[in-house]
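Each letter names a residue; structure tokens follow underneath. Both lines appear below:
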Amino acid sequence: MNLKKILFILFAIFLTYITYNNILSIDKSALKISTLRAILFGSNFTFCVTGIFAFLGFVLPTYKWLPESYYKIRNSMFLKKIYAVLGVGYFSKTVVAFFYNKKKINAKYFNGNSEGINAFTIQTKQDEFGHIVPFVIICCYCFYLLFNTTYVLLLTIFLSNILLNLYPVIMQRHNRTYRLKD
């Protein structure tokens, strides 16, 4: 195992520890938390949970943990409507502008050979897995928080979960539909 894999796995473990401590902290002081602290804490919580799966996904084929049938897009027209209604296209353009070089993406994945398309498909599945699992976990936790915390904290976690996890899932599914015509 190379150094990058070891470091990323250790960082995912560290984020798991931080997340666990955050949950304990929320349980102890949830009703006494200030609005600003709730906003910062909720966003941080979502970043940490998402980071666990993102860092594991950078070095392990975690997308294989879900069945291949999950990645099949059954109603691409509905997906495209959701993509448009939620404004995921703007999110997608922002992500590409800040985190990716479009020329490098096109050269790596869309260079005219099937290996690039296969790598693109695997990358979208990997990225999607890194967001769908945290999305589900955080939604379950939000349901728990509904009865145990301030609504500012709950709302912050819920909205940051939508932005950091649901939008990327929709974006990756749309990318596979658009590029590959599943």
Remarks:
- The chain is about 80% helix and 0% strand.
- The chain has a mean pLDDT of 88.
- The first helix runs from residue 3 to 29.
